[in-house]
Design brief:
Distance between the termini: 66 Å
Order of helices and strands: HHHH
Helix content: over 70%
Strand content: under 5%
Length: 192
C-alpha cells in the first residue's frame, strides 16, 4: 500500500507561520484584511453585474437604432418610388392624345403621398438617433462600471499582497484603490 506525502510549499509554510503568529499574539491584522477583502469582493460582484447590465442595454438600444434606421431607409425607398411615379405621370400628361387631367391628378396625388412619407422617414431617422444616443449613454455608464470593477480588483489584489507582507502602506494602498472604486461606481450610478 502506497503512502501519500504532502510537502507544503514555502508559501503555504509562510502563511501558516503568519497565521499562527497572529493568533498567538492577539493580532487581528489578517482578520481585518480578510473581512475587508470579502466586502470588496461583494462590491466588485455588484459592479460586475451593473457593468454587464449596462453593456446589454447599450447593445439593445443600438439594435433599436439600427431597426429604426432600416425602417427610415425603407420609407426613403418608398418616397423614391413615389417620386418616380410622379415623374412618369407628369411625363405622361405631356403626351399628345392622352387624358392629361388624369395624369396631372395622379402626379398631384403622388406629390401629396411623398410629403407624408418624407415626414415619416424623417421621424424614423430622429427616433434612430435617439436610440443611438441612449446607447452611447449606456456605453459610457458601462465604462464607468468597468473602471470601478478594475479598481476593486486592484484593491483585492493589493489586500492579498498586504496579507502576505503585512505592510501597512500596502493596506492603505489597497483601501485607497477600494475608495477609488466606490467613487467610480458612484459616478456610474449617477450617469456621470
Amino acid at each position: 500500500m502506497a503512502e501519500e506525502f504532502e510537502v507544503p510549499s514555502p508559501h503555504e509554510h509562510h502563511l501558516e507561520h503568519v497565521t499562527e503568529h497572529a493568533h498567538g499574539s492577539g493580532d487581528n491584522f489578517a482578520g481585518k484584511i480578510a473581512v475587508m477583502t470579502a466586502i470588496m469582493a461583494t462590491v466588485g460582484a455588484l459592479f460586475s453585474y451593473q457593468a454587464g447590465s449596462t453593456e446589454s442595454m447599450a447593445a439593445m438600444n443600438k439594435n433599436n437604432a439600427a431597426i429604426k434606421k432600416t425602417e427610415a431607409a425603407n420609407q426613403w425607398n418608398y418616397y423614391q418610388a413615389k417620386s418616380s411615379r410622379q415623374n412618369l405621370a407628369e411625363l405622361a400628361a405631356t403626351i399628345p392624345g392622352v387624358d392629361a387631367a388624369k395624369y396631372i391628378a395622379a402626379a398631384e396625388r403622388y406629390k401629396t403621398d411623398k410629403e407624408d412619407i418624407r415626414k415619416k422617414a424623417e421621424q424614423l431617422e430622429k427616433d434612430s438617433q435617439q436610440w443611438d444616443d441612449l446607447s452611447e449613454q449606456n456605453l459610457h455608464q458601462h465604462h464607468r462600471w468597468a473602471q470601478a470593477m478594475t479598481a476593486i480588483q486592484i484593491a483585492i489584489s493589493m489586500a492579498a499582497i498586504t496579507l502576505l507582507t503585512r505592510k501597512e502602506w500596502l493596506k492603505r494602498l489597497s483601501y485607497t484603490a477600494g475608495a477609488v472604486s466606490i467613487v467610480l461606481g458612484s459616478l456610474a450610478a449617477m450617469h456621470i
